[in-house]
Amino acid sequence: MSWAQAAIVLLGVLHALAAYAYFSRKRFALLWALGWLGLAAAAAWALPQAPGWTAAAVAGAVLGWTSWWTTLRALPRRHWVAENARQATGSAAGTTVTLHDVRDFHWHGSGDFDERWENEVRIDLDALEAVDLFVCTWGDPRIAHLIISFVVRGAPAVAFSIETRREQDESWSAFAGFMKAFELVIIAARERDVVRVRTNVRRETVHRYRLATTPEMRARLLLQYVHEMNALARRPRYYNTLFANCTTEVARIVRASGRRLPWAWPLLASGLVPRYFHDRGLIDDTRPFEAISAEADIGERARREAPGDDGGDFSARIRA
């Protein structure tokens, strides 16, 4: 096989993977992938006999796919699942931050919930007492979902969760997440919603870590979240499993708030972020990480609720 034939086969394989990833939520994903593989095989076979026509056909197919791909844009309005229906926004005036569309669902089971949204939540920047990092895992401890939560004096905590924004006919696929399959959404929510659904409904393993922050950093971090939410509402972006996810976006927001956070490979393995934060002094580094991590598991406390409890004391319970 010549180098040109090898290049055509490689192009076909790469486009087959890309097509399968993008269409993996649909029934015809395999047909797209087989189509690209078939085209590559036919072109590699025909190249010695008709190099000009074959090269033109391959170039045309790649150019057509690329041209179509560049037209794909993340959209603000689709038939979203209920929990992703609203992108939170906010504004700041003086020391008061006002958040809109804060989610406060009461979950009975997976897909079974009472839908509640708070249209206006005011937070006094001077009342920010702490910032907590929730790390949720459900299998491989190296794969996690991160949630940043602000503890507010005299008011319920507000958590921010960066997620894929799924349509009603979509299901999550990490593979599809590489190829413009999902939009990105920043959910502002109460902990009894966005954390409790993971501890009590999905039965994930959830750890809570207190971040080392100053009052100034807490204010900057919250304001940066408001800025990011508003920017996403104005111009939607695509989620990417590797480069634009709950971990890389949190790291980017923390950096933008003024905290130095050098790039490191643990940011690609979200379950390793707590140890990385500990090594950087963003989580208490005066004690061994293993001791802090053992104390951080909130599962037992989170699930200690009475029948009919709507999670009203959830935030206090997981910090007891």
List descriptors:
320 residues, alpha+beta, 2 domains, five-stranded antiparallel β-sheet
**Total domain modules:** 2
How far apart, in Å, are the first and last alpha carbons? 67 Å
Gyration radius from CA atoms, angstroms: 23 Å
Element-level helix/strand string: HHHEEEEEEEEEEEHHEHHHHHH
- Strand neighbour order, sheet with most strands: 11-10-9-8-12
Percentage of residues in strands: 15-25%
**Class by alpha and beta content:** alpha+beta
Shape: elongated
Compute the average pLDDT: 91
Helix content: 25-40%
Uncertain runs: none
Number of E strands: 12
Number of helix segments? 11
What does the largest sheet look like? 5 strands, antiparallel
Topology:
Blueprint: H1 3-22, H2 29-46, H3 51-70, E1 89-93, E2 96-100, E3 102-103, E4 106-109, E5 112-114, E6 117-118, E7 121-124, E8 128-137, E9 145-152, E10 155-165, E11 183-189, H4 191-194, H5 196-201, E12 205-210, H6 215-234, H7 246-256, H8 273-279, H9 289-296, H10 299-302, H11 314-318
Antiparallel strand pairs: 1-2, 2-7, 3-6, 4-5, 8-9, 8-12, 9-10, 10-11
Helix pairs in contact: 1-2, 2-3
Describe this structure in words.
The protein has 320 residues and is of the alpha+beta class. It is 38% helix and 21% strand. The model has no long low-confidence stretch (mean pLDDT 91). The protein starts with a helix and ends with a helix. It contains 11 helices and 12 strands. It has 2 domains: 3-70; 82-318, no CATH class. The chain has helices spanning 3-22, 29-46, 51-70, 191-194, 196-201, 215-234, 246-256, 273-279, 289-296, 299-302, 314-318; strands spanning 89-93, 96-100, 102-103, 106-109, 112-114, 117-118, 121-124, 128-137, 145-152, 155-165, 183-189, 205-210.
